[in-house]
Backbone:
């Protein structure tokens, strides 16, 4: 099974900060990577698929990059509604452990 | 509008079985690879298993903790996805979601394994 390692597991940031979350796969997964945002009590929301493709309607401050084993989710200017937990996932496969983004 | 609705959750004793269902609408279900994902209380997302579309062979794959005990199946004539869960243990108490592996997720159904 492919393992997905996400870091950090949590971070504290302020509105307007640039935030970067990384995800590493134990084997190459090409660009088969999704990024999700989840808020308490809600189903996950897809932000980015195929490593770098932004879902329609998702703000452009979210971006994804990477291929093979190393991937990054960047939020260019953190907004109040972005405080949530973020997960990477190999498409139809393993999730990373999650990164909780909270208010500094 | 794409919609997924899970059902079948509830209370089951350790060692027991349960079958979850997921009704799909608003998209071409026969073209979709479908997955089950679970989330234990206060924990992260855990992929459980997936089934390919029939055109890709309809094969299944499972996470190691559930292999041999859980079975994912589909009925394309009814736009339905299923998860048969056997030999459940208390650590498998979770909300179970069905998803197309992209933007479509159900609301989840709670499975509680307890004596």
Residues:
């Amino acid at each position: 099974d492919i393992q997905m390692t996400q870091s950090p597991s949590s971070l504290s940031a302020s509105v307007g900060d640039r935030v970067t979350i990384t995800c590493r796969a134990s084997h190459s997964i090409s660009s088969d990577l999704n990024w999700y945002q989840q808020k308490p009590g809600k189903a996950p929301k897809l932000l980015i698929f195929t490593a770098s493709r932004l879902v329609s309607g998702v703000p452009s401050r979210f971006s994804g990059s990477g291929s093979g084993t190393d991937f990054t989710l960047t939020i260019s200017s953190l907004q109040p509604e972005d405080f949530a937990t973020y997960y990477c996932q190999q498409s139809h496969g393993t999730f990373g452990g999650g990164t909780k983004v909270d208010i500094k | 509008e794409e919609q997924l609705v899970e059902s079948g959750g509830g209370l089951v004793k350790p060692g027991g079985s349960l079958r979850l269902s997921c009704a799909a609408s608003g998209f071409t279900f026969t073209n979709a690879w479908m997955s089950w994902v679970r989330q234990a209380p206060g924990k992260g997302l855990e992929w459980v298993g997936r089934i390919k579309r029939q055109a890709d062979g309809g094969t299944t794959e499972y996470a190691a903790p559930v292999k041999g005990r859980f079975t994912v199946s589909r009925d394309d004539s009814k736009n339905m996805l299923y998860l048969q869960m056997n030999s459940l243990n208390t650590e498998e108490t979770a909300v179970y979601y069905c998803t197309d592996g992209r933007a479509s997720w159900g609301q989840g159904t709670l499975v509680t394994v307890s004596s």
Notes: Chain A is about 0% helix and 50% strand. The CA atoms of residues 2 and 26 of chain A lie 6 Å apart. Strands of chain A lie at 4-7, 10-13, 19-25, 33-38, 45-49, 53-54, 62-67, 70-75, 85-90, 99-103. Chain A has a mean pLDDT of 97.
